[in-house]
Specification:
- The chain has 174 residues and is an alpha+beta fold.
- The chain has one domain.
- The protein contains 2 helices and 10 strands, in the order αββββββββαββ.
- Strands 1, 2, 3, 4, 5, 6, 7, 8, 9 and 10 form a 10-stranded antiparallel β-sheet that branches.
- A hairpin with a 4-residue loop joins strand 2 and strand 3.
- The radius of gyration is 20 Å and the shape is globular.
- The relative contact order is 0.18.
């Protein structure tokens, strides 16, 4: 009986210590900008690519007051029945009004032309909430090296292709 009581007390003490230790490890400052959401959109014909392009995007990104960022993204693109998938860790993010530009390093790829370690980026538009609001929007994902990724995030330029109206919800905040 004493052993069971000691184990219960040890477990309770552990529950009290672990959250504060985790908070100390993961906290990087106050969040000054954030973007998250899930989106699906199809680019129908006719378009600049001459194929129907299906897209699915899920992401979460935060920028902290010390300039650091955190987050992830999952992007799936389907063309002519073939789906490629990209998973990434956010390395840069900036918010320009209702628009977030997010980039990061690809950690998993099913596309043989885009290897792990390549950088990918996209931008999303939060066009408001409710029945009267226009649809949120997203660009396609671009790919390149770390320098191109940082240049993308730090430029206020609009996307070269799109943006396209999405089904889903995007939240961008400062």
């Amino acid at each position: 009986m004493k052993l069971r009581k000691a184990l219960v007390l040890l477990g309770v003490a552990g529950l009290l210590v672990v959250p504060s230790a985790l908070g100390a490890v993961t906290a990087t400052g106050s969040v000054v900008a954030s973007a998250n959401g899930g989106a699906h959109w199809t680019i129908p014909l006719p378009n600049a690519f001459d194929v129907v392009v299906g897209n699915d995007l899920e992401f979460n990104a935060r920028k902290y007051d010390d300039g650091s960022v955190s987050g992830h993204f999952n992007y799936h693109q389907t063309v002519e029945g073939v789906t490629v998938k990209f998973v990434g860790t956010v390395t840069c993010m900036n918010v320009y009004g209702n628009r977030a530009k997010i980039g990061g390093v690809i950690t998993k790829s099913t596309d043989p032309t885009i290897s792990e370690g390549t950088f990918g980026w996209f931008q999303v538009f939060d066009n408001g909430e409710g029945a009267g609001a226009p649809p949120d929007q997203s660009s396609l994902m671009g790919f390149g090296d770390e320098g191109a990724n940082e240049t993308f995030c730090n430029s206020p330029n609009l996307p070269r292709f799109g943006p396209w109206d999405i089904q889903g919800n995007i939240q961008v905040g400062q």
